[in-house]
Amino acid sequence: MTKTFRRSALVSLIGAIALALPVGSITATAASAQDFPAKPIEVIVPFKPGGRTDVVARMIGEKIKEQGWLSQPMAVVNADGGAGAAAVNRMNRGDAEGHTIVHWHHQALIAMAMGLGDFQLEDFKSIGYTGGGSPVWVVRSDSDFQSMEDLIAHLKDNPRSLVEAVGIGTIPHFVGALLAKEAGFETRYVTANSGADRLRLLLGGNADIALFSASEYLAQGDGLRPLIYFGRDRLPDLPDVPTAIELGYDVSWANPNWWLAPASTPDENVAALEAALEKAINDPEIAEYFRNNTLQPYWTSGAASMEDATRQLEALKAIAATIN
Questions:
Q1: Do the strands 209-213 and 163-166 form a parallel or antiparallel pair, or are they unpaired?
Q2: Which label site among 86, 98, 103, 290 has the fewest CB atoms less than 10 Å from its CB?
Q3: Same-domain check for residues 207 and 287
Q4: What is the number of alpha carbons within 13 Å of residue 112 lying toward its C-beta?
Q5: Residues 73 and 115 in one domain
Q6: For the chain, how big is the Rg over CA atoms in Å?
Q7: Res. 22: pLDDT tops 50
Q8: Side-by-side strand order, sheet with 163-166
Q9: Domain count of the chain?
């Protein structure tokens, strides 16, 4: 058999195999061979620049680029407004491959529970949590209440006798309401739509209780006494402040840095994003920044974070149903 004949036979065999394969199989094989991401990933932050969510997104994106954990960079864009609807709408205008994602926190669940945006948990795939920060419930330092047990006992004996500074529908409102429902007490509300408002009302004697992020409390310090921390474990910066879970109340609020992709995103692309984000939050430089800013660095996978968010959403819906 001549070389020319063998080459001709081989070409004929390859051609026959190609004709026997469905066109869709060839296309799918070619598509799967293309690495994700194929272009820069747009990370949408539903807030104005400069806040925690924005800073963490940029820092983690820069670390991933620096280390080459993804083949394309992350580009952070801000789209505040509409209780997160502006960010979700922008995400939905992106492709279905995971090149447009959102970096948010559990305010998203409050928006879902209250029906404030035209989106639900089913519209997303959770990529994971990259750490987070939990709040503290505080009273004035001259308050008669030395512990959370003292305060709860008083409220059970005297329902609605204490005033809580909150903005209706905000994280302080829902976190306090979750604890009140679990522990079986009631407070009265005075409107306070910002941390500055809550601090002013509390120190001015117009409120008895208010919720602050741990970093807000530590920055203020004077004039306040923390009674309970809403993390799953005690915060090293507040070693003497017990968690709600420690005291027997199944309530926590980590307000995690939450990465979300469209529900249509292929699982393998979500997995690629998960791998990069997990490496980033475990990077010593990132972890040190978190600890220095009263945040806790940890990784929660996409599946585990979606399970946690689903459970949290059900609890929030129960609170939302009580709001007139």
A1: parallel
A2: 86
A3: no
A4: 20
A5: yes
A6: 25
A7: no
A8: 188-191, 163-166, 209-213, 135-140, 224-229
A9: 2
